[in-house]
Amino acid sequence: MQTVEIVVPNPSGIHARPATLFVQTAARFSSKVTIENLDRGGRAVNAKSLLMVLSAGVSRGHRIRIAAEGQDEAEAISALETAVASGLGESLEGPPAG
C-alpha cells in the first residue's frame, strides 16, 4: 500500500466539480483507492465513489491522505497527487474559503 498526504489548495475545497475529476482519476486504476480528511478526523472512504468523496467534507487547506493498494498503486497515487496539487481542474486563484 502506498499513501500520500497533501494539503488541498482549491479555494472551495473538493466540492462537486473537483470531486468528479478526482473520482474519474481514481477510477482509471484497478487498485483500491481511498481518501481521508485528516483535519476532520473522519474515516477513509472509497475514492471511486462521488458521494463518498463529497462526504469527506474537504475544504481549502485541509490535509487529506490518499491511499492506494494494488497492481498500479504507485501510478494511482502519482496521478491523484498531481491532480489535487494542480487544483482538480479549477483555478487556484480566488478568495480563501472562510
Helices, strands, pairings?
Blueprint: E1 2-7, H1 16-27, E2 32-37, E3 45-46, H2 50-55, E4 63-69, H3 73-85
Antiparallel strand pairs: 1-4, 2-3, 2-4
Helix pairs in contact: 1-3
Account of the 3D structure:
With 98 residues, the protein is an alpha+beta fold. The protein has one domain: Histidine-containing Protein, Chain: A (2-Layer Sandwich), CATH 3.30.1340. Helices cover 32% and strands 21% of the residues. The protein has 3 helices and 4 strands; from the N terminus they run E-H-E-E-H-E-H. It has a 4-stranded antiparallel sheet. The chain is globular and about 35 Å long.
CATH architectural arrangement? 2-Layer Sandwich
In the CATH scheme, what's the topology name?
Histidine-containing Protein, Chain: A
Q: What would CATH call the class?
A: Alpha Beta
Rg for CA atoms? 12 Å
Fraction in helix? 25-40%
Range of strand content: 15-25%
Give the SSE order as H and E letters: EHEEHEH
With strands numbered from the N-terminus, the spatial order across the biggest sheet is 1-4-2-3
- SSE class: alpha+beta
Main beta-sheet strand count, sense and barrel state: 4 strands, antiparallel
**What are the segments in which pLDDT stays under 50 over at least 5 consecutive residues?**
none
Classified in CATH, the superfamily is HPr-like
- SS summary, helix count: 3
Tally of structural domains: 1
On the 0 to 100 scale, the average pLDDT is 93
Gross morphology is globular
